[in-house]
Amino acid sequence: MADTPSKLHIVLKELVRRSNDYSKRLRILEQRGDMLENRINSLQSFMDEHSKQIQDSVSKIEKIVNKEDVKVSRMEDRLRQIGVYVKKLATTSKVRELEQLLEIYNPLKSNFTTKEEVQRIIEEKMSKQS
Length: 130
Known about the structure:
Elements: H1 3-88, H2 92-105, H3 115-129
């Protein structure tokens, strides 16, 4: 029987050692789990922060694009107005034609006679003939 208590004592020691060993392993696994949870929380907050920044950036870009779109629309309208105005302008041939007409009717370069001069010339001719 003396043999039994010492075997019992050895078995109990082994059970306590294994229990301590399992406890240590469990504690290590819990620590790893806590570290992973912290990393996941860290990553989640990082992602949330960057997601908000990205949304803000996209929002700003959309505003800028909308402003530029309005500017382009205004420019297109203005170009259409200029096109209409240009179509109403005289062509080069029309301007040359007008220049030629002005040259013809320019009193400084042309030899026009006044009504009085014509009457005087007629009277002189009539008086010479009589």
